[in-house]
Structures are given as C-alpha cells and as structure tokens.
Amino acid sequence: MDKTVTTAAQAVADIPDGATVMIGGFGGSGAPIELIHALIDAGPKNLTVVNNNAGNGHVGLAALIEQGQVAKLICSFPRSADPKVFTDLYLAGGIELEIVPQGTLAERIRAGGAGIPAFYTPTSYGTDLATGKPVAEFDGRMYVQERGLKADFALIKAEQGDPMGNLTYRMAARNFNPVMATAAAVTIAQVSHVVAAGDLDPENVITPGIFVNRVVHVPNPQQEEVLNRQEAVYP
Predict the structure, then answer these.
(1) How far is 36 from 62, CA to CA, in rounded Å?
(2) Which is it for strands 135-138 and 96-99: parallel, antiparallel or unpaired?
(3) Which of 11, 89, 137, 183 lies most in the core, judged by the most C-beta atoms within 10 Å?
C-alpha cells in the first residue's frame, strides 16, 4: 500500500476544527515545521495540541498558536527560549494549558498507543499537578494515577521513510515522534528521504508502517532555531 501524498497541504487537509493533534519534537529537534505550517494554511480552529513545549518565536507551533488556532495546549515545558506568543495569550486568558511532567507526558502517550487506559507514577504526588487525581499507595510509596493520552492526528518528522510508512529518525529527532505515531488515529509523517519499499533494514526501522497513514516527502526541512535566528514569521 502506497501511503505517500504529494504535498504537506494535501496531508493535513482533512484535520477539522476541534481536533486533538499531537506534534512531535523536542524544541526544534524533530519538529515537523512544514506540516505545522501547512496546518496553519488549512485553518482549522479550536485545536487541542499535545507537544513537549509551547513553541518559540513566530514559526512552527508558536505560529499556530499566534494564528488563534489552538484552544488548549498539553505540554511539559511552556517556558522555552522565546515563548512570548504563548505567554501573552495565556496571560490574556486566550488559551488553556495542561502541564504534564515530561516523563509522564511521554508515558501517557505511550500508554495511549498501547491501549493502556491509566497507570500510576510517583511524579507530581503532593503538588498542584496531582489535584483531583486518584492516588494509591504501593510498597509504602504514594502514586498518582495518570490517564493514557490519544489523539485524532499526529504530525511527526522522520529522516527516512518508505511508501509503506516504515520510518527511521535522525539522532535526537527520535524524541516524542515514535510514541506519538502509535497514539493517533491518523499519523502523518514528513520525511527527508523517501526510499523504495524493502530498502530500509528492518532492524533499523523505529516506527513500523502499520502506525503511519500518510507520508510526505520534505527533502530540505526547515529548522526552528535557524528560522528564529533569521527572525522569520509565519505566515
């Protein structure tokens, strides 16, 4: 089955208002900038976005927020290098924030992809982040119950991919992308290099094609940090 689509615009065209969208990346590393910008152009509103941080500058996720398309952000690190867009909107009451400790966020996504509805972790016990959540004691230590996290769509970035959706990642870009691929109803991957089916060594495949619905070739992906040094603004 050939899962390739011609353009990023085509790949994200059916993401509707109110969708929950996971977006890969750790800061700029592994962030699918072209897919995010295509989503801005498509224009859906009231999105719930799951990401490690809140974006930087005026490109990528920050630009998506700046365009008023994000109603709620679920992330672990809203205070990044240049979070002015998110900070200003949040202080004005224009966006909802759910903070999740970074390891817990990754595990909530992994659990969602694995069909695990909930799990217990000691992280956040006794803090405001645990307010209203079930707690339990195991072996003399208190734990907080966290729910698995799923999404309607995941936008991820990979290094290599084949027409069947098998993916590899480049170094730290592996961060949240593989777990997000498993936790979404529709996973859309931008890849720097598209290779023929069978050319990827199965031992090197990180995300099997069964988790990927669309592959779009982006041969020279933009990097968030470079765009911000250039003071770029999108759109």
Answers:
(1) 10
(2) unpaired
(3) 11
pLDDT in tens, 1-53: 899 999 999 999 999 999 999 999 998 999 999 999 999 999 999 999 999 99
Amino acid at residue number 108? R
pTM above 0.85, yes or no: yes
Asked if residue 168 lies in contact with residue 200, where contact means CB atoms within 8 angstroms, the answer is: yes
Expressed as residue numbers, the domain containing 67 is 4-117+149-228
CATH number at residue 213: 3.40.1080.10
CA-to-CA distance for 213 and 67, rounded, in angstroms? 27
**Smallest Cα–Cα separation from 216: which of 72, 77, 39?**
39
Q: What angle do CA 156, 19, 159 make, to 5 degrees?
A: 5
Spatial neighbors of 174 by CB under 8 A, at least 6 apart, are 30, 206
Counting DSSP H helices and E strands in the chain, the numbers are 7, 12
Question: Is 4 within 8 Å of 217 (Cβ atoms)?
Answer: yes
